[in-house]
Specification:
13% of the residues lie in helices and 31% in strands. By secondary structure, the chain is an alpha+beta fold. Strand 6 (92-93) and strand 7 form a beta hairpin. It comes from Salinicola lusitanus.
């Protein structure tokens, strides 16, 4: 006799009571489809998502919730161990303050709430085993512009009444070895120079790497505009080409735009280069008005830093 199928409604779940500015299902992203015009998506601060997952014994790239600016409230429908990492958004459990990085138990009926940014911009919530939902092209990552991913498969942010189902019934909890630093004051972003770097005049290159930039209010998951000295490129025009994560494009007004996870797949502006993966994660925590500096590094240096971060999770 066949056993009856167990309903997801009986699994460990969190129910959304309030959503705040933006709360999204994100994992490492969607790869191998940019030739089809499908962008990467994924957690802006992939390091904080990785730590949240690590705290529960999940794979670092398992799907979690990216919470921008706070405002999210979740009620536990059943007992569940969860973890948070990244920005300090004033997380509480039934009004009791929680650390910005750590794992804890939610009993049935308890409410996990995120207030507003105190340090950083985005916090990440991990559930045991990740989030149980149907992936598209191998990923649950939400990309609203392309209407892909998320709980509904149509790129929607979390909505009141949504249920977050844990993909596993148990977690192997760990203690954070250190508190990941959020950008405070001025942030340094490492940049690997690109093919068009030689077409910028000397004064522009000096300014690019020796003067501070400000994160503009025109910033989202597609990209972040910087304001500062106007950069000048001698290229009259370009054929559009593929855009990597962290590409630093310079449009005609001379104000750089750093392209992030939900970027378009091709672009035709000259580029200073691309941020390292570590720097992209750091930028994901920089609020408008943050002062940043660009620091040139070699591809080998960027790769070593990336592999070092991955090794911490092993």
């Amino acid at each position: 006799m066949a056993m009856p199928e167990i309903s997801r409604a009986t699994s460990a779940a969190l129910v959304v009571e309030a959503t705040g500015p933006l709360a999204l299902v994100e994992d490492a992203g969607r790869f191998g489809a940019r030739h089809l015009g499908v962008t990467q998506g994924g957690a802006l601060d992939w390091i904080s998502l990785g730590w949240a997952n690590w705290l529960l014994g999940n794979a670092p790239d398992a799907a979690g919730i990216e919470i921008a600016m706070g405002g999210l409230k979740l009620q536990a429908a059943s007992r569940m161990t969860v973890a948070i990492a990244g920005a300090d958004l004033g997380a509480t459990r039934d009004g009791e303050a929680l650390p910005a990085n750590g794992s804890f138990v939610l009993e049935p009926g308890q409410v996990l709430a995120f207030d507003q940014p105190r340090a950083g911009l985005r916090a990440y919530l991990a559930l045991p085993g990740g989030i149980d939902a149907e992936p598209f092209m191998g990923s649950l990552s939400t990309v609203a512009r392309e209407q892909l991913g998320g709980l509904d498969g149509r790129g929607s942010a979390l909505r009141v009444g949504d249920r977050l189902i844990a993909a596993s019934d148990s977690a192997e909890t760990r203690e954070m070895p250190f508190a990941p630093a959020m950008p405070q004051g001025e942030a340094t972003l490492e940049l690997v120079t690109g093919a068009q770097i030689a077409h910028f005049d000397g004064a522009s290159l000096f300014a690019a790497f020796n003067q501070a930039w400000q994160v503009d209010s025109r910033a989202d998951r597609m990209g972040v505009r910087l304001t500062g000295p106007a950069l000048r490129c001698q290229l009259g025009g370009m054929i559009s080409e593929g855009i990597p994560l962290g590409a630093v494009q310079v449009p005609p007004d001379g104000q750089p735009i750093i392209l992030l996870n939900d970027r378009q797949t091709i672009g035709g502006y000259p580029r200073l280069g691309a941020l390292s993966p570590i720097a992209c994660a750091r930028l994901g925590q920089c609020a408008p008005g943050t002062s940043i500096r660009l620091s040139p590094v070699s591809p080998q240096q960027a790769r070593r830093a990336y592999l070092h971060q991955l090794a911490l999770w092993r």
